[in-house]
Amino acid sequence: MSMIANFKQISSSQLEELKKDPSLIEEIIYPDSESDIIDNLDIDKAWQGIHFILTGKVWEVEGLLGKVIMGGKETGDDVGYGPARYLTSIEVKDISNVLTHFSEDEFKSRFNPDKIVKNKIYPFTSSCEAENLEYLLSYFKTLKKFYEDCANKGNAMLIYIN
After folding, report:
1. CA-to-CA distance for 99 and 101, rounded, in angstroms?
2. Which three-class secondary structure string do you get for 83-130?
3. What are the domain boundaries of the chain?
4. Contact between 75 and 20 (Cβ < 8 Å)
5. Model-level pTM greater than 0.85?
6. Burial of 134 by CB count in 10 Å (0-12 exposed, 13-18 middle, 19+ buried)?
7. What would the pLDDT profile of 69-82 be if each residue is shown by its tens digit?
């Protein structure tokens, strides 16, 4: 089974409701109506590769770049591969500001297939080729835009892997 990272924008009021009642997590992440599925992003299996390129770390969450994918405070029950985590609207703005200054060129310069395999970065646990850079970069660019959109709307964010 694949491990897919998901991001969902939520309003600050939704976040406050979720903090009061973490059992709402499933209802927020998996709404009954297709029309309620807005402001979502799935970055496929690129999540750990992006985290590793941003931070040089496998799992550790250090600084704002560490929070892009692995950050946030856990809430609710397991939704696939652990509980969802949330970032407040202030954290989203701070992360978005840092991402704005993280260039495509810097991302490319940090891509090292040998280190990715050595550290068993998902999904490249046994091989990683130069062509995989485009896969990771395309999702990074999409994620960067998603954070910017979320920050501009003043939204909080949920991050979860399922």
Report:
1. 5
2. EEEEECHHHHHHHHHHHHCCCHHHHHHHCCHHHHHHCCCCCCCCCCCC
3. 38-161
4. no
5. yes
6. exposed
7. 999 999 999 999 99
Residue whose structure tokens are 């939204």: 155
Cα–Cα dist 106/65, whole Å: 13
d(CA 16, CA 10): 10
Rounded to an integer, the average pLDDT of 20-48 is 86
Mean predicted lDDT score pLDDT of the chain:
94
Distance from C-alpha of 7 to C-alpha of 143, rounded to nearest angstrom: 9
Taking every pair of C-alpha atoms in the chain, what is the biggest distance, in angstroms? 46
Q: What is the pLDDT of residues 144-155, one digit of tens each?
A: 999 999 999 999
61 and 134 Cβ atoms separated by less than 8 Å: no
Could you give the angle at the alpha carbon of 144 between the alpha carbons of 161 and 157, nearest 5°?
50
**Mind listing the pLDDT tens digit for each residue in 123-148?**
998 999 989 999 999 999 999 999 99
Which CATH superfamily is 38-161 part of?
YfbM-like super family (3.40.1760.10)
Alpha carbon distance 157, 140 (integer Å): 17
